[in-house]
Amino acid sequence: MSTMDVVLDALIVAQSTLLTVAAVVMGIAARGYAWTTWGGVLQPITVAIVGFLGTTMAAQLPLPGAWYLVVSSALWTVSVAAIVVATVRLNRMTRGVAS
Questions:
Q1: Cβ atoms 58, 71 nearer than 8 A
Q2: Can you tell me the distance from the alpha carbon of 32 to that of 14, in angstroms, rounded to the nearest whole number?
Q3: What is each CA distance from 7 to 13, 16, 55, in whole angstroms?
Q4: Other beta carbons less than 10 A from residue 40's beta carbon
Q5: Angle made by CA atoms 85, 46, 51, in degrees to the nearest 5
Q6: Eight-state DSSP code of residue 62
Q7: Distance (Å, rounded) from C-alpha 41 to C-alpha 56?
Q8: How far apart are CA 22 and CA 12, in angstroms?
Q9: Sign of the C-alpha dihedral, residues 27, 33, 36, 38?
Q10: Which tens digits make up the pLDDT trace of 5-60?
Q11: What is residue 49's predicted lDDT score, i.e. its pLDDT?
Q12: Which residue has the higher pLDDT, 99 or 58?
C-alpha cells in the first residue's frame, strides 16, 4: 500500500464519519420541524446527505469500476435532485409563497 492509498483511505473514513454525523443531526432537526415549512426544507437536505454518504461508502466497497460508477452516479443524482428540491422550497418560503 502506498502513502497515497493510506491518505485516500483516511480521507474516505473522515468523510464518511462527518457525513454520518451530519445525517443524524439533520434527521433529528428535520423530524423536529416535521409538518412545518422548515421541515419541508430540511427533509430533502437529509436525503442529500444520505446520498452523498452512500457515494462515499460505495468507494469502500469492492465493486468493479463500472458498477461503482453506476452506484455512485445514481446516489449523486438523487443527492443533487434533493438539493434542488430544498432550494426551491427555501426560495418559496422566503418569498412567502410556501404554506
A1: yes
A2: 27
A3: 10, 14, 18
A4: 20
A5: 90
A6: -
A7: 24
A8: 15
A9: negative
A10: 899 889 988 999 999 999 999 999 999 999 988 888 999 999 999 999 999 888 88
A11: 95
A12: 58
- What pLDDT is recorded for position 60? 83
Look up residue 72 and give its amino acid: S
pTM here?
A: 0.84
What is the C-alpha separation between 85 and 98, in angstroms, rounded?
13
Task: Assess contact for 41 and 86: CB atoms under 8 A.
Answer: yes
Quick one: pLDDT band at residue 99, thresholds 50, 70, 90? low
29's grid cell: 432537526
Phi, psi of 96 (to 5 degrees): 80, 15
Cell numbers at 47, concatenated? 436525503
Contact present, 37 and 92 (Cβ < 8 Å): no
